[in-house]
Automatic annotation (TrEMBL):
InterPro entries in the cross-refs: Na+/solute_symporter_sf
Positions of transmembrane segments: 7-23, 29-48, 60-84, 90-110, 122-142, 154-176, 188-207, 219-240, 261-282
Keyword Transmembrane helix: yes
Keywords: Membrane, Transmembrane, Transmembrane helix
The keyword Ribosomal protein is annotated on this UniProt entry: no
Name by which UniProt lists this protein: Sodium Bile acid symporter family protein
Source organism: Marinomonas sargassi
Length: 305
């Protein structure tokens, strides 16, 4: 078990490959991902002091990062798409991914690298809360039809996946003695990373379907998705490098991981026909980034010694 935890970042990437190789199993897991998501958020938040988390969310640098994560990268992706001659559908899909908040699995990935989980959690929540606003901006630019976002559904999901786990964690911290809770968390926290394995495996099955039907189109989507993923990761790392390697890698991981499933749930068909194939194609590069992050982290630690 210890060996699996040690190599968990590589295993996440392998899960994406397995999901591509076994699309039926991948699509069978897909409906259960919201339950996995809730469990992951709850266990992650249980290990975080809620007062400190709210204090971190009140900091200006978190919201400046959020503006960079969405607005700046949206503008950059839109300009690149225009220069490369993307169609309206592909341009909309690309900018919508740039508008997407960070994956809820990000704090667990950051914990596996021994970085600041609180920082990653604050960034994840802030980018998720900004999602409805930036998605509206995206649709205003790329679509002329009336915008009818599922606000009730979005608020419902916020309550379940953000405020619900936060409230549950707060109540547990108040009701359970700190010594007992810390003993429980010390035993279970290292294993929360295994819940992350479900996401790359369960989200890529739809992309495999496109690959079987039109392999050349699927390959083009993969190239674009890979370019987007590494653009988000690399640019974020460069922008925040002056704050130190740990902060820069945390920002890069948070920016590279995109919760495309939540974005699609909110905006649905308004995102156009290119969004879902692009969202599936981005799974492989997304879960390759933590492997690269591990290498970067080890290299940074050696340079500091």
């Amino acid at each position: 078990m210890t060996l699996l935890i040690r190599h968990s970042l590589l295993l996440m990437f392998l899960c994406a490959i397995l999901g591509f190789l076994f699309p039926s199993a991948s699509m069978a897991l897909f409906p259960f991902l919201p339950f996995v998501l809730f469990s992951l958020m709850t266990l992650t938040l249980l290990g975080i002091d809620q007062v400190k988390l709210m204090e971190r969310l009140s900091r200006l640098n978190i919201w400046l990062y959020t503006a960079f994560h969405s607005l700046v990268l949206m503008l950059l992706v839109g300009v690149i798409g225009w220069l490369l001659g993307f169609s309206i559908e592909l341009g909309l899909a690309s900018v919508a991914i740039a508008a997407t908040g960070s994956l809820f699995a990000t704090p667990a990935i950051v914990r596996a690298l021994d970085f600041d989980v609180m920082q990653a959690m604050a960034m994840t929540i802030a980018t998720t809360l900004s999602l409805p606003i930036v998605i509206v901006l995206t649709l205003l630019v790329y679509q002329t039809e009336a915008i009818e976002l599922d606000w009730v559904g979005y608020c419902y999901r916020l309550m379940i996946f953000i405020f619900g786990p936060m409230l549950f964690s707060y109540c547990i911290h108040k009701a359970v003695p700190k010594v007992v809770l810390n003993r429980f968390l010390s035993k279970i926290t290292p294993y929360t990373i295994f819940l992350v394995f479900a996401f790359p495996f369960g989200l890529i099955g739809g992309y495999r379907t496109l690959f079987d039907q039109a392999p050349w189109i699927a390959f083009n989507y993969f190239l674009i998705a890979t370019g987007l993923c590494f653009l988000f990761f690399g640019l974020s790392y460069c922008v925040y490098r002056r704050k130190g390697a740990a902060f820069a890698i945390t920002a890069a991981i948070t920016s590279g991981n995109r919760n495309v499933l939540l974005t699609y749930t909110i905006a649905g068909s308004l995102l156009g026909p290119a969004f879902l194939p692009l969202a599936g194609a981005i799974q492989l590069p997304t879960y390759l980034l933590p492997v690269i992050s591990r290498w970067m982290s080890n290299r940074a630690k050696k340079q500091e010694e």
